[in-house]
Amino acid sequence: MSKIKTIARAVALAGVAATFSTAVSAACSNQGSLDARYCDADNDLIADIPTDSSQWLDPETLIFAYTPVEDPAVYKEAWADFLTYLEEQTGKEVVFFPVQSNAAEIEAMRSGRLHIAGFNTGSNPLAVNCAGYRPFTMMAGDDGSYGYEMEILTYPGSGIETIEDIKGKKMAFTSPTSNSGFKAPSAILKADYDMLPERDFEPVYSGKHDNSILGVANQDYPAAAVANSVLGRMLSRDVVTDDQLVSIYKSQTFPTTSYGVAHNLKPELQEKIQQAFLNFPWEGTTLEEEFSRNGEAQFVPITYKEHWDVIRKIDAANDVSYSCS
């Protein structure tokens, strides 16, 4: 069976199965901010695994997607060795699905077409509440340190030396669901500098962090807010150079991309997937080759309730709603 046919069959089966997995028992004791199709009886802020085994999914082919922070083609190869390991640990075929936007990734999991994913920092709350996403790990260094910072970039000679100099100019964001590409800088500009989009500067949207970084480097945007983890990888690949960019702001450290599963995968399968992440041998792999550029060397356990607390606070400051549409 061809790869294309395999994906199509997996997507079709997942879509059919998803129609049987959306009902939540009327006896659900707690829903929190989750969509009505999910339950959070244990109050950990993520969707519970269905108690009714008839609602569990055990697909022949697992679909994996990585957050679209950069060109998906770059990451299909980077994840190749890990996905081979995941196949060995689960006994299932695993297919890399190159999503083009955060919204498309969330919708793919919500509709049952996506089983395992890496969601970027800002997308996590929407993925958790609207798609039944259950995050359990993220990348970290050998010493257990993790995270990235939001930086606001400009280019030499732009006339921008401080945040206030952005007034009256264009400011590039990535997308409204991105923490470092939109939500964090919006909250910081408002709270610390009394600067609002439209009133004080013209907001534009590039779609992705690499687009914003390239836009500043090529002097298409006077300023842009980006994740410096993406910037670091682009610098290490010589996509851009240090002399093309100037950083005028660096935030506190935020949690990085989380990895997790759809809530209604069979519990035993969820456990196998989780152990595959946490036990993956990094050394000499394509994953190490790409992500060691940021100093990342392992997957570490996380909880959405604890590690995404600061992100939920940023969302609250921005009046972000987790309602699903």
Model description:
With 325 residues, the protein is α/β, with parallel strands linked by helices. It folds into two domains: 3-144 and 256-317, 3-Layer(aba) Sandwich (D-Maltodextrin-Binding Protein, domain 2); 148-253, Periplasmic binding protein-like II (D-Maltodextrin-Binding Protein, domain 2, 3-Layer(aba) Sandwich). The protein is built from twelve helices and eleven strands. The strands form three sheets. Strands 2-1-3-10-4-11 form a six-stranded mixed β-sheet, with helices on both faces. The chain has a three-stranded antiparallel β-sheet with strand order 8-5-9, with helices on both faces. The longest helix has 16 residues, at 3-18. It is globular, with a radius of gyration of 20 Å. Residues 61-294 form the Solute-binding protein family 3/N-terminal domain. Pfam families: Phosphonate-bd. Keywords: Signal. It comes from Marinobacter suaedae.
Spell out the key features of this protein:
D-Maltodextrin-Binding Protein, domain 2; single chain; Phosphate/phosphite/phosphonate ABC transporter substrate-binding protein; about 325 residues; PhnD; 11 strands; 12 helices; about 35% helix; Solute-binding_3/MltF_N; six-stranded mixed beta sheet; three-stranded antiparallel beta sheet; globular; disordered N terminus; signal; alpha/beta
Cα gyration radius (Å): 20 Å
Mean pLDDT: 91
- CATH-scheme architecture of the largest domain: 3-Layer(aba) Sandwich
Give the total of domains.
Answer: 2
Number of helices: 12
Q: List low-confidence stretches.
A: 1-23
Helix/sheet category = alpha/beta
What oligomeric arrangement do these chains adopt?
single chain
Alpha carbon gap, first and last residue: 36 Å
Family: Belongs to the phosphate/phosphite/phosphonate binding protein family.
Signal peptide: 1-26
Keywords: Signal
Organism: Marinobacter suaedae
